[in-house]
Amino acid sequence: MGRLYITLYGVLFITCGLFIAGLVWLPDVALRGTVQRYYERALIGAYDLVEARLEAYPQAQWDEVIDKLAPHFHYGLALYGPEDLDGLAIAGPEQLRLKQDRLIFQDEGEQTRFFKRVLDTDRYLMMVLGPNPEQEEVDQVKGIIYLIESRFLDSDRADWPDVLTDLGQLFDMPLALLSLDDTALPTERLADIKAGKAIVLGLENQEETYFKRLGESDQVFRAGPFEVPPILRYFNFFLLVLLALLIALAVYVWVRPVWRDLNQFDRGVRHFGTGDLDTRLLVNKRSALRPLADTFNAMAERMQRLIHSHKELTGAVSHELRTPIARLRFRVDMLEEPLSSSDYQRHITAMRKDIVELEELVNESLSYSRFDRERPDLILETVTLDEWLSILLIELNDEMLAVEVQLTPSPDDKTQVTLDTRLMGRAVKNLLRNAHRHASNRIILSGSCVGGEATIVVEDDGTGVPETDRERIFEPFARLDAARDRESGGVGLGLAIVNQIVRWHQGSVRVETSSLGGARFVITWPVTQS
Predict the structure, then answer these.
(1) 456 pLDDT exceeds 90?
(2) Which of 391, 405, 430, 491 has the smallest CB count inside 10 Å?
(3) Domain 380-526: top CATH class
(4) How many CB atoms lie within 10 A of CB 23?
């Protein structure tokens, strides 16, 4: 589950990183042209007014003229020469735009500096605009308002309509002259207007409209509304929508495969719950739910194997129990009849033999059932192979009296291997007992280690195992039809237990033809267990 959260956090981190990166370069790339045109519309008229005033004076007096105008520009007004451009951090392309009589701007925190060449000279005029509430907006355009008002007051009252027409050609916005009693004036701010204050309305709607009474006259100059382009007005909203879409897309990209896998999980679990034990969950190897699918598949595999094993074991045990039980029933019936002492003793002996067979069947069935479950935690030990095999033979000495058992030493008598001595010992003993039941006179036991693989071999001189039965012989309750049948002993679980133990050691067991003429069982497993 931790992988799910790591994946989600990674996706959101990358998404937010891309969004923040977009905040850095997107406005400059997407909006610079629009912002440029917006500023040109707003300020080009002001620059023309300043140029008109400078044009009336020799160039040598321009600095004095700017010094007189600067107090009316709250955030700054200055005149620079070509030698100052590098110090102002104006790059080569921007300098080229200046020489082409274009307006350029520089954003510096809450202030924006604007530059434009004055007339056809090598002098450059800078205006600065700052923060943007109403008073700050008024302070920003205070100098422009002063120039406009001066233009009217320097002209005869009768020429004011003509002045308004001239200004209309300079400013790309609606201009008008209104009388103080005009209903178009904002009544809530009429007192400020009559007091000669410059006011600006519509900031909250980004549709600025400026009002300024011209001197002591009854005329009010109105400029605006000056509408901000929609892309600038709603840019923050667009950014939020873009962020929401990016997050939604990122979550969708992450959730869709997870949701698809969860739906598959739901179908698979339902099918498995209805008894379809072959159901497995197939997900992409890069899926975040792959560990969960692997766990379910492993569980399903174990459950299917256990259920199949238990069904097989139950059926096999039931089948194996029938014969000794039938014989016992027959013997009991016979004992109800008058019998001689010798016949009576013969039936009792046979019944005891059947009971022993039943006990052996039950014990072996329980052992196989235990071994057929989950792999136990192997208690691995490193032992000297020949010494360990010698100990096993000593433990079986009383059971192997009828035949000759020979231990062939390995080429290196110090060969060491790693194994679970208890479990592997049981496997080797099962092979020896199996060989003892079927050998005529001789059994050979040997061990070796070559190329990192340990080998134990048990051979006998019995009848051997036909090639067609060499795979089936390791199945539970498997017996051969000829010499290795029930009459030779065993219940058919010993070799199945051997096979299970060897697989737990990551090895294999096989049967071949012995040089003695009988069967040759070979156990192999890695010397070093992982």
Answers:
(1) yes
(2) 391
(3) alpha beta
(4) 11
